[in-house]
Write a structure and sequence with these properties.
There is one protein chain. With 486 residues, the chain is an alpha+beta fold. The chain folds into two domains: 2-236, Nucleotidyltransferase, domain 5 (2-Layer Sandwich); 242-421 and 453-486, 2-Layer Sandwich (Nucleotidyltransferase, domain 5). The protein has 17 helices and 23 strands. A seven-stranded mixed sheet has the order 17-18-16-15-21-22-23. Strand 1 (2-7) and strand 2 form a beta hairpin. Helix 2 (102-111) packs across helix 4, helix 11 packs antiparallel against helix 13 (361-384) and helix 12 (310-320) crosses helix 13. The longest helix is centred in the C-terminal third of the chain and has 24 residues, at 361-384. 49% of the residues are buried. The model has no long low-confidence stretch (mean pLDDT 93).
Length: 486
């Protein structure tokens, strides 16, 4: 058996995977986020560890943990976890969704003129480097104590093994990594007052980072098994749905929206806010567009506006779909929380355009789903502008359960969409798969990372494709026309 540990923002999840790749057990423990000031988002790393221990003890009561062969790690990316020379946590970890460091982003771009070429990304407050520069400038006493900077899952690794290590995919989200060379970059570190001595050892995602501490092994009724480098949550999630080869891609239609494409070598398009990261398997890279509001746009409309639920809205839309005139529906901008790709504008806002007396509830529901689909199309265009192309797009996420929305995406994107099972456990499953790869070097990626079972394949409808192409032209004109009003 193999364990996959996924340290998320809202909780930690650990799965038990058998030799055949099946998930035989799982357990979660909730975590809370602290927001002591506007734009701040922090967690106490000790809470991560307490939750990890709680989950492991529960799993140990239900499973033959002596059969576990290795442990893989995944988790929330970008968080700055700062340790002193005695390995004590200096301050609460600053998380990926913390927005306090915009000024430091601008400073880093001025200090290192070629930072976009080095990292393949724009410097954004979500990344680790500007967070640590903020600490240097606003908490100098804390900065002076820093001996190691770790990402969230890598703090768990230290407590599990005593080793300071990270994987390439998570390291790529710090803005300290030369993403093409897969190595720490001295200029980016120096701009934050750091050196390579402050950084953990870099490993590929399927390499062994250390052995489980003997005392912990005894506590959890385990052997002292290898702990594997693992991956950041998006890269591990992609491995969990079998995306390991160039050209494979997925759309994750969840609360937020992600388009993830495994690229042929290192490619980048930072000017359109595309993320270019190392993948969690050797010599592989990926590109990613991110939209901050996707399926939650529909949830907002259902719960906060019409005081209903999403399933009722979808049922009503399905019943009226045969007579719905989509050409007359409003156009919706889905920027309820700002937007990342391609606009990189935290101040962008949502908007309905083209409301008439004929605009009923079903029209608004359709408009929201269509607007989210158009925003995904913007993200796909930005990713593909880097020179990478998809051979197949897998669709996962809660919003993907709607057949109407799946077909809408196929029509808007004018491409085949493959809906698969199992995306909800992606990162933990990916971590477990990496754990298996590390101790079974004879197995290929295809052996360990099969794609999940196909539920349905959606092909574009040529008539609808033409309609949506015309409506998307209007959608694309709206943002530049009103952005100065935000």
């Amino acid at each position: 058996m193999y364990l996959g540990v996924d340290l998320g923002t809202s909780g930690i999840k650990i799965i038990v995977m058998d030799e055949a790749g099946n998930i035989v057990d799982s357990e979660t423990e909730a975590l809370q986020v602290s927001r002591p000031n506007p734009l701040w988002s922090e967690q106490d790393p000790q809470h991560w560890w307490a939750a990890c221990d709680t989950v492991m003890q529960k799993l140990a009561k239900r499973n033959q943990m002596q059969q576990v062969k290795s442990i893989g790690l995944s988790g929330q990316m970008h968080g700055a976890t700062l340790l002193d020379s005695e390995n004590n946590v200096i301050r609460p970890a600053i998380l990926w969704n913390d927005g306090r460091s915009q000024a430091q982003c601008e400073e880093l771009e001025q200090k290192v003129a070629n930072c976009h070429q080095i990292t393949g990304n724009l410097v954004m407050p979500g990344f680790t480097a500007p967070k640590v520069l903020w600490v240097k400038q606003n908490e100098p006493d804390n900065f002076a104590k820093i001996a190691k900077v770790l990402l969230p899952k890598d703090y768990l690794r230290f407590l599990l093994t005593g080793s300071f290590a990270t994987d390439m995919s998570d390291a790529a989200g710090t803005m300290w990594l030369d993403v093409e060379a897969r190595d720490w970059h001295s200029d980016m570190l120096s701009a934050c007052g750091l050196t390579k001595e402050h950084m953990p050892t870099l490993l590929e995602g399927n390499e062994i980072s250390g052995q489980l501490d003997e005392h912990l092994a005894k506590r959890w009724n385990m052997q002292s098994v290898p702990v594997i480098a693992g991956g950041g949550d998006n890269a591990a999630g992609a491995i969990g749905v079998g995306l390991v080869s160039p050209g494979q891609a997925m759309i994750s239609l969840g609360t937020s929206g992600v388009y993830f494409l495994v690229s042929e070598g290192f490619k980048a398009n930072p000017q359109k806010a595309v993320h270019s990261f190392c993948h969690a398997v050797p010599n592989t890279w990926h590109l990613m567009s991110v939209m901050l509001s996707a399926a939650n746009c529909l949830q907002w409309f259902a719960e906060d506006v019409v005081k209903s639920n999403v399933s009722d809205l979808l049922e009503e839309l399905a019943s009226k779909s045969a007579t719905l005139d989509i050409k007359q529906a409003p156009i919706f901008l889905p920027y309820l929380s700002g937007e990342r790709t391609p606009h990189n504008n935290p101040h962008a806002q949502g908007n309905f355009f083209g409301i008439t007396n004929e605009s009923d509830q079903a029209c608004f529901t359709h408009a929201i789903m269509e607007g989210v689909s158009f925003a995904f199309a913007d993200g796909l265009d930005a990713v593909h502008d880097s020179g990478a192309q998809a051979t197949e797009i897998t669709l996962i996420g809660g919003g993907a359960k709607s057949p109407y929305w799946r077909q809408l995406l196929a029509d808007v994107l004018n491409t085949k969409i493959t809906f698969r099972k199992g995306g909800d456990v992606g990162p933990a499953l990916g971590a477990a798969r990496l754990a298996k790869m590390a101790i079974h070097r004879e197995l290929t990626l295809d052996d360990v990372c099969p794609e999940p079972e196909i539920v349905e394949i959606h092909y574009p409808n040529s008539h609808k494709v033409a309609i949506y192409r015309s409506r998307r032209d209007k959608f694309k004109k709206l943002y530049p026309a009103i952005k100065e009003l935000f």
